C-alpha cells in the first residue's frame, strides 16, 4: 500500500522531469554552458595551448589546403605504378618549377603594374573628381549638392582621423608585425614538411585517431571523419579551381579589350573569388574605377567582359567543378560570411564556409543519433502496441 501511494505521489515528478526528454536535453545544455563558464574562468591555463596553435596553425592550414589539391595527383601516380614517395617527390619538383616560372615571368609583370598603378592613382583621383564636379554642376543635382558636399567633408575628416590613428598605432604595432613575419617565414619552411607526411601517411590518420575510441564508437566516428574530409576536399578543390579559372578568364578578357593593369586585376579577381558570391563583384570595383577614367567605351567593354565571365562561370565552370556537394543554401552562406567576417575578419570570410560545412556534418550526425535514442521523433504507429487479434 505504501509503495502504491509513493508511486502515485512520485509519478507526476517522474513523468514531467525525470522521464522527460526535453527536460533532460535542457539539463545537458545547462551543464555544457556551465562547463564553458568554468573554462572562461580558468582560460589562463590554456594560454600555452593557444600560443602553440598560433605558431603551428598557419603551416598546418597551408599544408592542409595543398594536401587536398595534391593528394588526387599522388593517388593517380600511385595507381599508375609509381611508388607513393617517388610520386610525392615528382609532384614537389613540378610545383617548385611552376613557382620558379611564376616568380620569373608573372611576378615581375605584376610588380610593374602595381608600381604603375601607384604612380597613376593620384591622376585617376583627379580625373574622377573633375567628372564628379561636372556631374554635380548639372541643375538637377543642385538640390542634393549641399548634402553631398557635407558628406564629402565628413568623409575627409574621418580619413584624416584614421590616418592620425594609424600613425600612432604603427609604432606600437611593429612588434606584432615582426611576429607575423616570423610566423609566415616559419610556415613557409615547415608547411612543405607537414605536407610531405600528410601525402605519405594521410590514409592512416583516420584509423589511427579512431583507434583510441571504444570499439562501439569507432565505425560511426570514422564515418563522420570521412564525410568531413570529403566536404573539405570538395570545397577547397572546387573553390581554388574556380578561382584559377576566373583569374585566367579575366586576364584574357582584359587583355583583349586593352584595359590597363589586366594581369594585376585578373589575379586580384581570382583571389577575391575565394569569397563566395561576393568575390567577383568586389573585384569589379577597381576595374570599373579604371574603366571610367579610361573612357565610356572602355567601360562598356569591361561590362561585356564581366557579363561573359559571369555566364561562363555560372553556367559551365561552377556546376562542373563545385556542383551541389555542400548543399548549403545561398542565404545561409551569406549569413555565415557576414558573421564570420565580423568575428574573424578576412580569415573568417575565406574559411567560414568550410568550417560551417564541417560543423553541419557533426550537427547532422549528432541529431540523427539523438533521434535514434529519443522517443520524441518516432512515428505514432511505431509507438503504439499492435492490437490483439
Automatic annotation (TrEMBL):
Keyword Transmembrane helix tagged: yes
Keywords: Cell membrane, Membrane, Transmembrane, Transmembrane helix, Transport
Record-linked InterPro entries: AI-2E-like
Pfam families: AI-2E_transport
Main subcellular location: membrane
Keyword Protein biosynthesis: no
Membrane topology, as annotated: Multi-pass membrane protein
Location in or out of the cell: Cell membrane
Transmembrane segments: 21-46, 52-74, 86-107, 177-199, 242-275, 281-308, 343-363
Family: Belongs to the autoinducer-2 exporter (AI-2E) (TC 2.A.86) family.
Record's protein name: AI-2E family transporter
Amino acid at each position: 500500500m505504501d509503495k502504491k501511494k509513493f508511486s502515485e505521489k512520485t509519478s507526476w515528478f517522474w513523468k514531467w522531469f525525470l522521464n522527460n526528454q526535453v527536460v533532460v536535453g535542457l539539463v545537458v545544455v545547462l551543464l555544457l554552458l556551465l562547463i564553458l563558464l568554468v573554462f572562461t574562468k580558468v582560460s589562463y591555463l590554456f594560454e600555452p595551448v593557444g600560443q602553440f596553435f598560433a605558431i603551428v596553425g598557419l603551416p598546418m592550414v597551408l599544408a592542409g589546403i595543398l594536401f587536398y589539391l595534391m593528394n588526387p595527383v599522388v593517388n593517380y601516380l600511385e595507381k599508375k605504378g609509381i611508388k607513393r614517395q617517388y610520386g610525392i617527390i615528382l609532384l614537389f619538383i613540378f610545383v617548385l618549377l611552376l613557382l620558379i616560372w611564376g616568380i620569373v615571368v608573372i611576378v615581375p609583370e605584376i610588380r610593374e603594374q602595381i608600381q604603375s598603378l601607384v604612380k597613376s592613382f593620384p591622376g585617376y583621383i583627379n580625373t574622377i573628381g573633375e567628372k564628379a564636379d561636372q556631374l554635380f554642376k548639372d541643375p538637377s543635382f543642385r538640390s542634393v549638392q549641399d548634402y553631398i558636399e557635407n558628406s564629402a567633408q565628413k568623409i575627409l575628416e574621418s580619413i584624416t582621423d584614421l590616418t592620425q590613428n594609424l600613425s600612432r598605432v604603427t609604432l606600437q604595432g611593429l612588434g606584432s608585425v615582426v611576429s607575423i613575419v616570423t610566423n609566415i617565414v616559419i610556415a613557409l619552411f615547415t608547411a612543405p614538411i607537414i605536407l610531405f607526411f600528410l601525402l605519405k601517411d594521410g590514409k592512416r590518420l583516420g584509423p589511427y585517431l579512431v583507434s583510441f575510441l571504444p570499439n562501439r564508437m569507432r565505425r560511426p566516428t570514422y564515418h563522420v571523419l570521412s564525410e568531413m574530409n570529403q566536404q573539405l576536399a570538395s570545397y577547397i578543390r572546387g573553390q581554388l579551381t574556380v578561382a584559377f579559372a576566373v583569374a585566367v578568364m579575366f586576364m584574357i578578357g582584359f587583355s583583349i579589350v586593352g584595359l590597363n593593369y589586366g594581369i594585376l586585376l585578373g589575379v586580384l579577381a581570382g583571389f577575391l573569388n575565394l569569397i563566395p558570391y561576393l568575390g567577383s563583384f568586389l573585384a569589379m570595383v577597381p576595374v570599373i574605377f579604371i574603366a571610367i577614367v579610361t573612357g565610356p567605351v572602355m567601360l562598356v567593354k569591361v561590362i561585356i567582359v564581366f557579363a561573359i565571365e559571369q555566364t561562363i562561370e555560372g553556367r559551365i565552370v561552377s556546376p562542373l567543378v563545385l556542383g551541389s556537394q555542400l548543399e548549403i543554401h545561398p542565404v545561409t552562406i551569406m549569413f555565415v560570411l557576414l558573421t564570420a567576417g565580423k568575428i574573424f575578419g578576412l580569415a573568417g570570410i575565406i574559411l567560414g564556409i568550410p568550417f560551417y560545412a564541417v560543423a553541419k556534418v557533426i550537427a547532422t550526425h549528432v541529431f540523427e543519433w539523438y533521434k535514434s535514442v529519443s522517443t520524441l521523433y518516432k512515428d505514432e504507429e511505431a509507438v503504439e502496441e499492435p492490437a490483439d487479434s
